[in-house]
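lol forgot to send this yesterday, sorry. struct tokens for the thing we talked abt
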């Protein structure tokens, strides 16, 4: 997969080449993917309109062993797409060549997964094929409509030096001094170019057969440069057609040190292969001159480029190899806001860390709490004390046999946060326990992810290489906590963290003055494989008469509006209200309603089967500060199951106004449920699921690791 990279004309080819454009020849759209779940669905959805008038076509997705469910997203978006599963990620070029092999007899349009072709784009590309043309490139724009500089001149030492001295945009105005074409007028007229970036390019069948495969040794970057320059030298020139348009979301090359260093070093390798080692030495020096000043100013990407140039090998290491040697990979310690042993395992810290543990060693520290449960103030006081004691007794365990790098511990806490002296003592106690476990597990100097503000007292005296605050909730709004103390701890954690991850746009905006450029929005994910509709319902819900108005999740008294639930029971005597989840208060108030069915806690593995039985899924939240800054994971889980959803009003639900009915007040909520029982809700089962296809937990975990390990 390539990223945004952006010609002036080549010398005329030595001989013109006749290219057949028979209407009967089909065109194959080849999309190479790797961990592209977030973008592939929209790429596929744009293709029907883009292919209008282009003749017979087929779509081939070549997946380079994605780990984020990309192939599942493809199948759910368009089950007629052919998916070619490769066993590893050995580069974009290898994926393209696989696509060529599966497109025998076709012209081939190669696309990145983050390309959105405009209507009629493929027809315009095919119309541009004429004698002497082997490759056709469209006009690429940014999502805001501005031009993406995708046209390039042949790389030379002088052009690399020109860009080093003048900057790429200024040098690009002058042909001899810049590789990237930056004059706006050049993007408004059709014509021959030396080469164009490989985010979208149509290759004729004659060109493929005459030129051969794309050079795979580059892995990423320069492979399309080499192919187009090689094709041009044999009479198959690259043509730019602005009538064919596409939006390119852009890749990571400008922000990922690893990818940027690959881009820079491959440019040297390309020069070596075309012009020999002496010429390559000049390109190497020019590239070093280009990167060194920026590296000295602190640019992480250019530091990586300088290091890569100084240690350059003949060809790059396989992409499937980790960015760092395994022995140098940082371990992670996560101070969770939940307890693995008795809370719902759908919570974000569990979902993220279990996926990070597929690549790194992870120690999840179960919640050290926000307060000590007290009789009269805390619901189910004795039960809470006993279950925490049981969790502590489990010591350190590996709960997932298929993820051996994932460890869970519950330290013995002293959750008396009102007393500064006792709080300090409690922090020392927890710190000593976590330190000891890290020593036994050989996890020195970890990256620390804190999800609960009381972790601050522990973390500030704990050796770590980086601190990430996973700001999933405003914990100071928790009614049972010492809110003043917890708010002060939140402020310290906000100020002391290297990165702050938000799931609430509302909360991120309110705290932007404190966090500034350290703040990042990392939306919740959803386990798409897990949250699928099931053919059979569990016996207990199958025996409940329909229609069923359902809720699954924790029935917490500070989150759920129990008065609203009782109102639903009263208003819909002919429907069943099904409540699935652990309750933090007595459910006796519902005993008088024969249509209310509280099924108590059900294991995470069974939740999708229960949810499949809902006719309407509800989010009956209280109107309080906690909910105002929340982003319930169940919102995406409901949608992944294709359920019709009715919710009370809170900021994050407005991200889905065309999928979820939003009600203000009890009367409006009752009416929204009534309407949904009648019409089946907003959108369709398929439409609701499609909306969350890009939201895999695997992709969210990769984003967290990129931030925590300085990859962006």
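and heres what i got for the seq, position by position
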């Amino acid at each position: 997969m390539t990223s945004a990279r952006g010609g002036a004309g080549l010398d005329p080819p030595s001989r013109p080449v006749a290219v057949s454009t028979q209407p009967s020849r089909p065109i194959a759209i080849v999309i190479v993917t790797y961990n592209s779940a977030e973008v592939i669905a929209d790429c596929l959805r744009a293709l029907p309109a883009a292919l209008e008038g282009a003749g017979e076509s087929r779509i081939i997705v070549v997946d380079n062993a994605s780990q984020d469910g990309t192939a599942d997203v493809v199948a759910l978006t368009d089950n007629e797409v052919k998916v070619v599963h490769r066993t590893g990620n050995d580069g974009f070029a290898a994926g393209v060549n696989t696509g060529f092999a599966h497109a025998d007899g076709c012209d081939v349009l190669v696309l990145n997964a983050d390309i959105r072709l405009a209507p009629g784009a493929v027809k315009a590309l095919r119309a541009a094929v004429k004698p002497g043309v082997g490759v056709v490139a469209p006009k690429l724009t940014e999502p805001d409509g501005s031009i993406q500089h995708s046209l390039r001149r042949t790389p030379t030492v002088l052009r690399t030096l020109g860009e080093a001295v003048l900057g790429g945009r200024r040098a690009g105005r002058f042909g001899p001094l810049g590789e990237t074409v930056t004059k706006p007028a050049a993007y408004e007229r059709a014509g021959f170019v030396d080469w164009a970036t490989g985010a979208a390019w149509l290759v004729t069948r004659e060109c493929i057969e005459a030129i051969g495969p794309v050079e795979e040794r580059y892995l990423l970057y320069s492979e399309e440069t080499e192919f187009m320059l090689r094709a041009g030298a044999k009479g198959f020139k690259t043509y730019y057609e602005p009538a064919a348009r596409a939006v390119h979301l852009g890749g990571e090359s400008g922000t990922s040190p690893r990818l940027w260093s690959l881009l820079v070093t491959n440019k040297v390798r390309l020069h070596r292969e075309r012009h020999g080692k002496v010429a390559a030495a000049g390109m190497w020096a020019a590239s070093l001159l280009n990167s060194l000043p920026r590296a000295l100013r602190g640019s992480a990407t250019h530091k990586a480029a300088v290091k890569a140039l100084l240690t350059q090998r003949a060809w790059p290491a396989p992409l499937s190899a980790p960015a760092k040697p395994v022995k140098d990979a940082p371990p992670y310690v996560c101070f969770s806001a939940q307890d693995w042993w008795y809370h719902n395992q759908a919570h974000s810290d569990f979902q993220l860390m279990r996926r990070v543990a597929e690549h790194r060693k992870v120690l999840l520290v179960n919640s050290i709490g926000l307060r000590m449960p007290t009789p009269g103030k805390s619901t189910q006081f004795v039960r809470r004390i006993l279950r925490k004691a049981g969790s502590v007794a489990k010591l350190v365990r590996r709960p997932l046999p298929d993820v051996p790098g994932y460890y869970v511990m519950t330290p013995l806490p002293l959750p008396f946060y009102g007393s500064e002296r006792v709080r300090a003592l409690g922090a020392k106690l927890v710190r000593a326990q976590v330190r000891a476990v890290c020593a036994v597990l050989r996890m020195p100097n970890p990256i620390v992810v804190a999800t609960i503000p009381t972790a601050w007292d522990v973390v500030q005296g704990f050796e770590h290489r980086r601190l990430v605050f996973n700001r999933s909730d405003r914990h100071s709004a928790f009614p049972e906590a010492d809110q003043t103390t917890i708010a002060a701890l939140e402020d310290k954690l906000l100020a002391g963290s290297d990165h702050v991850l938000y799931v609430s746009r509302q909360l991120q905006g309110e705290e932007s003055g404190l966090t500034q450029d350290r703040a990042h929005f990392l939306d919740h994910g959803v386990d798409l494989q897990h949250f699928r509709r099931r053919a059979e319902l569990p016996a207990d819900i199958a025996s409940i008469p329909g229609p069923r108005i359902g809720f699954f999740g924790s029935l917490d008294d500070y989150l759920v509006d129990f008065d609203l639930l009782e109102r639903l029971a009263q208003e819909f005597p002919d429907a069943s209200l099904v409540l699935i989840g652990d309750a933090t208060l007595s459910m006796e108030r519902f005993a008088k309603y024969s249509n209310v069915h509280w099924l108590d806690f059900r294991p995470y593995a069974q939740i999708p089967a229960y949810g499949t039985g809902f006719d309407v899924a509800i989010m009956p939240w209280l109107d309080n500060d906690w909910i105002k800054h929340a982003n319930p994971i169940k919102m995406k889980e409901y949608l992944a199951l294709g359920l019709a959803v009715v919710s009370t009003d809170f900021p994050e639900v407005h991200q889905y106004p065309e999928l979820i009915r939003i009600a203000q007040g009890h009367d409006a909520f009752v009416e929204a449920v009534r309407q949904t029982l009648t019409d089946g809700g907003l959108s369709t089962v398929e439409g609701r699921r499609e909306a969350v296809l890009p939201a895999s937990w695997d992709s969210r975990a990769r984003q967290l690791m990129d931030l925590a390990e300085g990859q962006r």
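The chain has four domains: 27-153+193-248, 257-311, 332-521, 539-691. anyway ping me if u want another try
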